[in-house]
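Form P-L/3: holo structure prediction, ligand magnesium ion.
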Amino acid sequence: MEKEQKIKLVRILFTVAALIALHFVHVTGTLRLILYIAVYLVIGYDILWEAIEGIREKELFDEDFLMAVATIGAFALAIYEKTGSYNEAIAVMLFFQIGEFFEDYAVDRSRDNIAGLMDIRPDYANVEENGKLSRVSPDTVPIGTVIVVQPGEKIPIDGVVTGGTSTLNTAALTGESLPRSVEAGDAVVSGSVNQTGLLKIRTTKAFGESTVSQILELVEDAAERKSKSEAFITRFARFYTPIVCISALLLAVLPPVIRMTLLHTAPRWHEWIYRALTFLVISCPCALVVSIPLTFFAGIGGASRAGILIKGSNFMETLSKTKTVVFDKTGTLTKGVFEVDDIHHSEMEHERLLEYAALAESASSHPISASLQRAYGKEIDRTRVTEIHEDSGRGVTAKVDGVPVAAGNEKLMESLGVSYISCRSAGTIIHVAINGEYQGHIVVSDVIKPQSAEAMTELRRAGVTKTVMLTGDSWKVAERVAQTLKLNEAHAGLLPEQKVEQVERLLQQQQGKGTLTFVGDGVNDAPVLTRADLGIAMGAMGSDAAIEAADVVLMDDNPTKVAKAIRIARKCLRIVYQNIAFAIAVKLACLILGALGFANMWLAVFADVGVMVLAVLNAIRALRVKNL
Ligand code: ADP
Ligand code: MG
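OUTPUT (holo model):
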């Protein structure tokens, strides 16, 4: 329990005790009033303060305001009628606080639950020193340290395997139960559990930047980012609360006036004012205020257990309305692991050509770069490379041993004024120019991810009406992918800004009917990820820029997770709407009873707390996403 909650609990207990004591001690008159006001302030000072703040910030009509008006009103009535029964105002405040207390508790619990279920925070790293293993705190391990992970242990920090083979369980990260086998040279992420063999891993990131820390941070941030889901409530409150307040005012004024003027009977002001105050208490939207953020939070928690990181609750709504999904090709629909197939038209030794290309590409994060390095196979001496410049969507230029080298597609060659030889092979072509002279091209090819076809079927089943592919690669390659996957549209040869143009055109086309989601992985996708209604990035292979720009990150780069994310978002919103409908139904019933004089303030607060408990229980269902 946090300190604030403990204080609240003490206040609640004190108030209960004080009410009982005051019931037995017979004080009357002003002293009685002062004592009751003191108790009232003890239990309600924070609510009153919030209400004043609300008025100052012109955000009238929130639940604090309603509570303040209702209880002060009840007090005023009691003073006016000289009944001395100040109990009611205090009791209403007390119930309200008990409700709030319970709500905080429930939110904390589900937060703990989510964190516990995710259970991925590593506590230590093993570092070998003088032949002995010592356990150290993972955040003290510098980048490049070799750590040892024994079978059964969690990998604490992202890195590359330098020794040993094993299988990893990545279920906590990706939701996939299939183990993944790794050997020397493989990149591994923190949070996976080492199952069979001992692994030596050279860390490539600090603990704070490692996958596990990033995930936990994201989930915690998403929970903190309450303001966005509050926007949802504010929108709802914009029409709800004014209606309620005006109704309350009418209820207080109209019947007495009618009684006086038309019926010529006593107006019974106090009775109608009391009913109006009750009406205000009933109309307080506490259950919604609690359950809506909680539902989003549970949905985000459930999604992250399935390897889908949703960066904020506001994205749930956008996601649930997805009608068009636009994919990048390389690294998104295809594996992004290129194999060098051939080298054409080169008078140089092929190995030399590959060496120049690999060196020039040494700083690129593009999958093509990695494949060239792999094909070259030798250690890269970075000191030989200077003036590296990457032209997104085209390729790279650099100086290798002081000689200008360019490696990229036809567009790059054109922009450099180098005449090139086109290639008929069905692959991605990397033309290479050295010292301004064309030196031939390297043919590399990529394969479609095994899950891509299923991803398309699932999307259609999830109600997506249009699937589009945008790629910077050649049309020849794009066509094959588009046909295999039966995409609705495909566009090739696009520079990053042209991808943005295409997305803008598609946004125009769908004219606010549903939303558009872009799924990509590369640095060059960052602008489109931002421009689309919603951006999804591939988390494992994806560049940091894409992960940063995206609203949703798929931990295991599996494109079928896009449809899953949509279904999770739909379930989450369904629960939100259920809770809204339920709460409003109960409120309406109470409101009618209150207006007819059958409900008093006590019942009102009781109903409110009851609705809240049920709504919270319903909200927690959003955590369960396994079979979606
Ligand atoms: P996609 O949109 O399919 O992910 P990119 O926009 O990343 O593709 O790249 C488009 C094309 O630009 C590639 O197919 C390749 O021809 C060229 N290209 C981009 N970056 C590089 C690079 N680092 N080296 C060589 N060619 C590159
Ligand atoms: Mg890409």
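COMMENT: The longest strand covers residues 437-445.
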